[in-house]
Amino acid sequence: MLKFQPPGFGHKVINTFLGSMVYYTQISEPWDISKIEELPPLLFLHNFGGGASSYEWSKVYPAFANQYRILAPDLIGWGESDHPVRDYQIQDYLATISEFINQTCNQPVTVVASSLTAAFTIRLAIAEPDLFKDLFLVSPSGFDDFGQGAGRRLPLSVINMPFLDNLIYGLGAENEVAVSNFLRSFLFAKPELLTQEMVEAYLTSAQKSNAKFSALAFLRGDLYFDLSLYIQQLKIPTVFFWGEEAQFTNIELGRRLASLNKNVIRDFQEIANTGILPHLETPEVVIGLLYKYL
Predict the structure, then answer these.
(1) Are 24 and 10 in contact (CB under 8 A)?
(2) Which of 25, 79, 156, 211 has the smallest CB count inside 10 Å?
(3) Does the predicted model carry a pTM greater than 0.90?
């Protein structure tokens, strides 16, 4: 995935209880890396779904590379990180994200995260608040919020049928046409903004050995939960960003979640003409909004 990284960014690796986690950070010009360890950490966490990886944030994080030490990991089961063969559970991600922060940050971290991973970040910030400084979350959702499932696209009986899971993943995530159609139809509000590079980055990630296990855990709903049951416990200052045309998790859901903890969720920013990935569709807008709060 290095070919999809911005100039001056390279990968490093930490070890977690589930294997190696690759992350991207400044390693060379045009960034001044002589004092990189002195910069405050800024952590970007990607969404889930076939082909997901840290590439999702690669159009945004270079804008902050002079002021922050950028940390953009591929989570376990995704991108260039290890893909253990297992039935992934929520606790797997809470634990490995915690391990990542503890190994890479010597001070509370600012986190920028999206969708289900943003919801995991809320849960982790409740459990381990000392790890976090503030949160900037794009469409955070547990995909079962207020008891209303949002993400499962196929019946469990189909997804779990022997050999059919391979077919589902192969047809839905491992070929270019399917990846392009999914991004255009479901993740982008303006499909004309989708580039060939984006399609190739998602396809490259989806084709990694054993990539299906994390993706199918997401598709089955194994990682879903009701965020509304947790969000009132959050005490870390937080801002929500929400694409006005986001599918699966619409903006009314976002407003309803934010209203549960108005003292901590200090702002709710709607982003017009974008879907669930405004940071890929209109990265310049997301950059501007992040600068407003950072």
Answers:
(1) yes
(2) 156
(3) yes
